[in-house]
Specification:
Elements lengths: L16 H14 L12 H12 L1
Helix pairs in contact: 1-2
């Protein structure tokens, strides 16, 4: 695995489960209208949205 891999150069990045969760949280936080998923499980997004309302 290359240490200098970037998101934009087409390199496959291997992420830990915690890294995936952080990346998904960033996507939900930055979304303005829609959240897409490969399955019908949006519980994580719902929890994050509820937490954002509290701020």
């Amino acid at each position: 695995m290359r240490e200098e891999a970037s998101w934009n150069d087409g390199t496959i990045l291997y992420l830990s489960p915690n890294q995936v969760k952080s990346y998904n949280a960033a996507q939900v936080f930055c979304s303005t209208r829609f959240v897409y998923a490969s399955n019908d499980d949006f519980e994580f997004a719902k929890v994050l949205c509820q937490e954002m309302i509290l701020f």
